[in-house]
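User: For my dataset I need records formatted as: sequence, then structure tokens, nothing else. Please produce one.
Assistant:
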Amino acid sequence: MQTVPRIESRTPAAHERRAFFSYSGPMAGDAPALLAPRPGLLALEGGIVQHGTLRGAAVPAQGDLIFTTAATGWGEVLTDPSYAGQVVVLTHPMAGNYRIDSGELESAKVHARALVVSRLVTPPAGPGWSLEELLVAGEIPVITGIDTRALTLELRRGAARRCVIRSGEVPLPTAIDEAAASPSWESVDHVAAVATNEATYVPPQGPRRGRAVLVDFGVKRSLLRAIAARGFEITVLPPDASPSAVASEEPDLIVLSPGPGDPARMDPQIALVRELAAEAIAGGPPILGICLGHQLLALAVNAPTRRLAVGHHGGNHAVMELDSGRVDIGAHNHEVAVLDHPALAAAGYRVSHRDLNDGTVEGLVHASGRIASVQFHPEGAPGPIDAARIFDIATAGALDGEGATLRIARA
């Protein structure tokens, strides 16, 4: 029985792994060879240990353990930059029963550190990737045979989250100590590892209607497609872009993208957003913030954020639009939330959306009508896309004749 070679003490960061796929998808014979299953274990820093079977890449892994309730969309989850530094537990009892089209992938790399599942199945042969092939090519392991629902309950009860996945031959105390010694999720600059480091251009789909600048903190391809599909050409700028670099593009709309990590450690980006917001309120290009972008807008006016006791990951979170009472079931992927703090109102913001499960602030609008943000993902991917109209409202509002009012909470 092959065991996992202990060739390094951590999962390679996403930027250290090779890019291995494009939109074209694998051709016959191109899929990576699968390795024999081998015994393994998952150990948490607080002492919880579960034994299972290792598949995927033959490397150890470490990261911050989170769970997602998504029943499908594994390709999107693994390649979403917002999962950088995290080991993802799937609460759904089965994974891998369909092949993954390369067009579903959200970036050019796998960003998650590892996958934890109850049962991994192999789909019939055909075009696209099997889930296990994607894991092997992405150089991360999966541990199967885990009671993921029991593990999720432990996480919901506040179990410590740093974890390692190791060969079953590693002594349990050693594995637990390695988990406790691993870097915390909050201490790492994940954005620098996943965002672009140079300006890129995305053409509009169909006739050009406007121009957007997107500041990339870890953007998904589906978000770019959603904006381009509404006739906007997009200039994607790196996370260290200056206000003058944004202004030089003469955008009709500025989009602050999603991304991984703790926004409270992003002082240069908070300063950038503060200046862009001041310009928007004064009549400059309006702003749409999504997920991390939403959090940075709040931090820019000294409203605090905090890490949630139970993060939101999955496609079944109910969010209410407060003005209309409309409820959307949407895609969520965030560990951090904006607090409803007096600093928001003092800066002209009000809460536009709330999560119906825990009351989390899920959206903000500014009194000027020129800044709006949402904590959830209107682009879905994996779905649902109940709230995709937010892109219609934001792009139309950026081009209207009434001062580029976004009107997200009043549509």
